Structures are given as structure tokens and as C-alpha cells.
Amino acid sequence: MKKIFSLSLLTALALLTALPTDACTSAIFTGKSTPDGRPLLWKHRDTGELDNRIEFFPAGNGRKYGFLGLVNSDVQDGEVWTGTNEVGFSIMNTASYNLQSEPAKLEDQEGVVMYQALGSCKTLADFEKMLDKMKKPRGVEANFGVIDAEGGAAYYEVNNTEWRKIDVNDPKIAPEGFLIYTNHSYTGRKDDGMGYVRYNTANEIIHRGWIQGVDFTPQWIFNNLSRSYYHSLLGVDLNKHPELAPEGWFVDQDFIPRRSTSASIVIKGVKKGENPDLTVMWTILGYPPCSAAVPLFVAAGKDQPEYMLKGSGKGDNCLMCDQALARRAKVFPLTRGNGKNYFNVAAAHQFMKDLAPLEESMFIRADYLMERSYKQGKLDKESLPLLYIL
Question: I want to staple 22 with a disulfide (CB 3.0 to 4.6 A). Which of 95, 125, 269, 302 is the partner?
Fold first, then answer.
């Protein structure tokens, strides 16, 4: 009977319409909710552009500040999809589907907005001034998550003509010190938009952790959110109960990691008064169960790990993303008909098991490096080459 029920469930799920591919999951954790008092900015990216890489943009050519960003591998300049700059300003976004009053001719400019912000903003106030000065319509319908080196942490719900600030430091808004966003805005049209199941899933996982007193860290976020196969609506957790996947298969619907996931990033900021060079951009390129996190620093400039950069993989893609895509193909091997809606749970679990020691080693080495760097008040750049050995 259990298998019959599960197969019926799979059939019903397969008939559901897939969500838009530009449908990310995110959260901001202020220093109030983290073990060391440093904020965390999480962006789990879903997109139709699966070839992603990292690029460093130096100051100049219209950029006041140098910055590090996640980009689509086939785009040369002008767009960034998560990033942090040399003065500790960090930004990401999630698409919103309940802010715009009517369709506009100019759309999908979120990457352009973040590129401009990283090159020109130091604080949340700078970002607000930038939004005010932008030519309208802005061509965006999004939630922008922002942290800075002065303790600022907020989401901005932005459409073509208006913006609203949701302050994560406000105890009335985020009493526990964190806030979660998917693909709807709190001030938008009620019950419209997307991502409600993923929102509930992330909300349950994070609040459960908060109640249990876990330490919210980049590693915790990756393992408990970016690689979670918990489905809050169905009450199914395939990581804890893989036997619930009939014949090892399940429908790829409303989990946080999905077929369209191209990267997951946690930016760990600094305490007020600390050197912004100590900001860490922990980056997973590719489908998170099939890849490993790497810590990146704006202070390293163009000397980023080669396997995260343009040309180390096929064409303009990077090696890390190519390798993750090759593993992902075994998790999503079905391409005919509705086959793309299913994923191989056993393959995903095997890749997570295989890659866990590599990522654990990276976190251990990074923790040692950052402990020294925090004490010195500056990044220990000389140790970076050893950190990046895989």
C-alpha cells in the first residue's frame, strides 16, 4: 500500500505546472542570530542559465569600488547575480511575482542593478539613493537582499516605480534576527506570487534550528537548506527517509534544490568596525548536492582559484561548474517527455556523500585562516594558495 500511495503521489505531482526558472530562495541572518555576531546573506539561485562562474571586477571603468560577483558564463560585463565589494557591501536578489501593477517593456534588469550597486555603494543608504536616482521604469520586480560593513541588513522590495525597505535589524519585523524570502514580496498583492512552499520549507528548517540552538553558519546553511530534500507541504524528507522515493525516483517539485538551481552562495560579512577585507563569499557553483563550497575574497583581486574562473572549463565556463553539471546529469538523466520532472534521489545522495570530505576539509582550512585573519585585523592572503588546493 505504501508504494501504491507513493506512486499515486508522484503521478499527481508530475501533472503540476513547474514554477518559473527564475525562482530563488534566500535569507538574511543578522549578527544577532549568528554565533560570532557576523551577518550572513544567503542566495540559492534558480535560473535557466546553468553555466555560472565567478568574476572579479576591479575599480575603474565607471566602478568606484572593485567587487566579486556570480555571473552567467556567456555574459562579458554589466550583470551580476550575487556579489560583494571591497568596502563590505553585499547584495543578492530573488524574483518577485506580486509587485508589478502591469507588464512593462523593460524587464529583467535585476543583474544590471546589482552590478551598478556593487560598483558604487558602500552602505544601505547609498543603495537607497541609487534606487531613487534610477531612471524609471527600472525594469525590475524583485526583492534585493543587502548587508553592509556598518551593521546594515535589509531586503528591498522593488518594482518599476517604487521601493520599500524591510529592515532585518528591526525586532518588530525579524525578532529572531533573520528573514526569509522566495518569490513573493511581503508588501505585494496578497496570495499572489510564487515560492510559497519553498518559503515554508526554509522557514520551518531555520526556525527548527533556532529553537534547537544550532549555530547558523555557512556550512549549516549549505547542508540544511541548499541540499535539503525536505518538502514542507508533503511532510517528506528524502534525506532522512530515502525509502519514500519509489524505485529511487521522486518528482522535482518545490524542493529548495531543483533542476534549475545553478549556484548557492552565503556571504559572511563583518562586524561593525572590522576590516571589510574579511568578508567571505562562500560559493557553490552548480546544483549543490553535486558540488562543493569554496570561500572567496574580494581582497584577493584577480587571484581567485582558477577552477572558479572563466576559461578553466568549456568555453567561457569554469571547471567547477562543468564538473558539477556532469554530476547533475546523473541526478536528472531523463530527458524525454516528462522525464525532466523527475530526479534520481540515490544519485544525489551518493554525490553528497562523495563530496562531503572535500567540503569539510575546505571549511576546516578556512576556519584556521579566518581565525588568524580576525586576530590580525586583515586577510592572511599568503595562505590562500594552500586553501584552494582540492
Answer: 95
Are 308 and 294 in contact by the 8 Å Cβ rule? The answer is yes
What is 2-387's CATH number?
A: 3.60.60.10
Whose grid coordinates read 540515490? 346
202 neighbors 225 (Cβ within 8 angstroms): yes
Q: Choose among 77, 136, 84: nearest CA to 111.
A: 77
Question: Hey, what amino acid is at 175?
Answer: P
The whole-model pTM stands at 0.95
Q: Where do the domains of the chain lie?
A: 2-387
Q: What letters, b where the CB count within 10 A reaches 16 and e where it falls short, cover 157-196?
A: bbbbeebebbbbbeeeebeebbbbbbbbbeebeeeebbbe
SS3 assignment for 179-210: EEECECCCCCCCCCCECHHHHHHHHHHHHHHH
The packing angle between helices 345-376 and 319-331, to 10°, is 150
> How far apart are alpha carbons 86 and 275 in whole angstroms?
10
Q: Walk along the chain (390 residues) in steps of 10 and give the mean pLDDT of each run.
A: 44 47 90 98 97 98 97 89 98 95 78 98 98 95 98 97 97 98 95 95 98 98 98 98 96 97 98 98 98 98 97 96 98 96 98 98 98 97 94
Cell numbers linked to 64: 568606484
